[in-house]
Amino acid sequence: MIFRLLRFARPARGRLALAVLSGVLALGSGVGLMATSAWLISRAAQHPPVLMLMVAIVAVRAFGLGRGVFRYVERLVGHDATFRILADLRARVYERLERLAPAGLPAFRGGDLLNRLVADVDAVQDLFLRVLLPCTVAAVVGGASVGLAWLLLPSAGVVLLLALLVAGVVAPWLSSAVSRRAERRTTDLRGELTSHVVDTLQGAPELIAYGAADDQLAKAAEIDREFTRATARSAATSGLGAAVSALAGGLAVWGSLAVGVPAVRSGALDGVLLAVVVLLPLAAFEVVAGLPLAAQYLERVRRSAARIFAVLDTPPPVREPDDPAPLPAAPYTLAVDDLRARWTPGAPYALDGLSLDLAPGRRCAIVGPSGSGKTTLTSVLLRFLEPSGGQATLNGVDLRALSGEDVRQVIGLCAQDAHLFDSTIGENIRLARPDAADEEIRDALRRARLLDWVDSLPDGLGTRVGEHGAQVSGGQRQRIALARALLADFPVLLLDEPSEHLDIATADELTADLLTATEGRTTLLVTHRLAGLDAVDEIVVLDGGRVADRGTHADLLSRPGPYRALWQREQAAAPAPQPA
After folding, report:
1. Phi/psi of residue 89, each to 5°?
2. How much of the chain exceeds pLDDT 90, in percent?
3. For residue 536, which phi and psi values (nearest 5 degrees)?
4. Is-contact 277 156, C-beta < 8 A?
5. pLDDT class for 24, splitting at 50, 70, 90?
């Protein structure tokens, strides 16, 4: 996982190298400042001529200024490089989500996907800022500090080396080993908590209406308590690593003092340099102080990377052709021949052996109970789902040979759950054609039988619809979606259960208006309502993914069959007309 993440850093490797160099110079300046200051204080105590101290004085000033300047450069360049890497990674995750939508997204919960796109991608920054940069700088500066101590007194170099190994290797290893499970649990709980909160907010009206809000909030509180406990265990592990590192630093100072004093007595070390030998570990341990925490961040990054790559490695439900065929010229004939499709490998066919011809201007209705394969057909035609057998063609060209974007320029969808953004009516419709003028939008609303209502509103096209269209009725929401589809002017229009979730009277009225608005346009109407279907050219009845019957409305009612049974059931359920 970590090596795969490093591939994303290739475009920014120059900036990362500059950040490492700046970090080395910053911490090196800190070590130089401590060593030079120690020598200067010790030498000044002997009251030599001031000129003999000038070089050291200038060096102290240079190291002091350089430390701040190089630290600033390291932070600036390091964060710039990291944010560029995160931007690229987040764009790739979003592109994969776009390719997975809509058929491939049900494998992930909505809130968890949000957490992967935001929190998990953000966690990757720790790999570069808190793991790779500190470890690289620590290795370089720590090695140089050991070398300096070795030159002054070999035994002091050995003491410093052992202490740095304890603080820079043993402590991080211990921290990583102890925190591995806690970090994995923390990452999983963060995603679970996000998903639960998003689901609770989206379903708040239903939860309150059915008295289930308290249970949902109690479950959220329990997940939050588990997340807090996992975070506390992670923090305790961080404290353990810091304690081991601090202990090693203290032992290094005492060890340097223990070998330095005898060396001064024996004449192996100049007394002035004793302060350098003793105080050098204090500066050297600054470079390894954060490594135990870096080990924890590494575990966190590894877990977040696994969640990110789970999205990136999910195969798209549709394979785009390597060399797409050119889009054929209008007018368009959409044909389906012995089409089979299923949502998961090995599952029963959701659509099994359907054949259909939609010549230019022809209108066809696909009816049947829920689960009969109606929506599966629209998903295949829109290149959201790969067919398992047979083929669908556009002017004789297999849809699989065309790019999905080209197909969706010709075949448009008005879905049962068409999304309205928290914006105005005009902007929601203009989404289909951003350069459309207000008069064109008004014409689309007129054809969708909604213009009179919009004109009656104080703000007209500027009326806001609320999140998910919450401030308009279900019928109005579907008509706004229809107006958007009409403005796009697709040559072939798919209407997928446009009257779903509406009362019977509103559903029948909307269906009649839809058929009126699409007159003369190649249309495939997927519906479970049968009212108004006498206006279409052909009706195909599906049952269990197979064609159970087909014909015109009059033909199907003239003979016993599933369509007449559905019609009789629908008529029996229709409300009785109210007396005048």
Report:
1. -65, -45
2. 24
3. -95, 165
4. yes
5. very high
DSSP string, 322-377: SSPPPPPPSS--EEEEEEEE-SSTTSPPSEEEEEEEE-TT-EEEEE-STTSSHHHH
pLDDT surpassing 50 at residue 580: no
Percent of the chain with pLDDT over 70: 95
Interatomic CA distance for residues 562 and 560, integer angstroms: 7
* Alpha-carbon span 21 to 407, nearest angstrom: 51
Residues 119-149: tens digit of each pLDDT: 888 888 888 988 889 899 999 998 999 999 9
In the chain, the N- to C-terminal Cα span, in Å, equals 73
* Highest averaged pLDDT of the listed ranges 18-22, 287-291, 295-299, 484-488: 18-22
- How far apart (Å, rounded) are the C-alpha atoms in residues 265 and 244? 32
Sequence-ordered strand ranges (E) for 132-261: none
Is the CB of residue 290 less than 8 Å from the CB of residue 277? no
Going from the C-alpha of 182 to that of each of 118, 287, 305, 455, the distances in angstroms are 21, 26, 16, 59
Non-local (6+) Cβ contacts of 491 within 8 A are 330, 331, 332, 360, 410, 411, 521, 522
Q: Residue 61's pLDDT is what?
A: 92
Phi-psi region of 442 (alpha: psi -120 to 50; beta: other; left: phi over 0): alpha
Cβ atoms of 265 and 257 closer than 8 Å = no
Which residue shows structure tokens 């009059």? Answer: 554
Three-state DSSP class for 254? helix
> Mapped to the 3 state alphabet, what secondary structure does 49-87 carry?
CHHHHHHHHHHHHHHHHHHHHHHHHHHHHHHHHHHHHHH
pLDDT of 26 reads 93
- Strands 389-394 and 363-367, how do they pair? unpaired
Contacts of 28 (CB under 8 A, 6+ apart): 141, 144
Could you tell me whether strands 522-527 and 492-496 are parallel, antiparallel, or unpaired per DSSP bridges? parallel
Confidence (pLDDT) at 502: 63
Q: Is the pTM of the predicted complex or chain greater than 0.85?
A: no
Give the model's confidence band at 424: pLDDT under 50 very low, under 70 low, under 90 confident, else very high: very high
Q: Tell me the C-alpha distance between 339 and 376, whole Å.
A: 11
Residue with tokens 């950040």: 19
Of how many residues is the chain composed?
Answer: 580
Question: For residues 541 and 448, which has the higher predicted lDDT (pLDDT)?
Answer: 541
Residue with tokens 């054929």: 328
Work out the angle at residue 71's Cα, subtended by the Cα atoms of residues 35 and 170, and round it to the nearest 5 degrees: 65
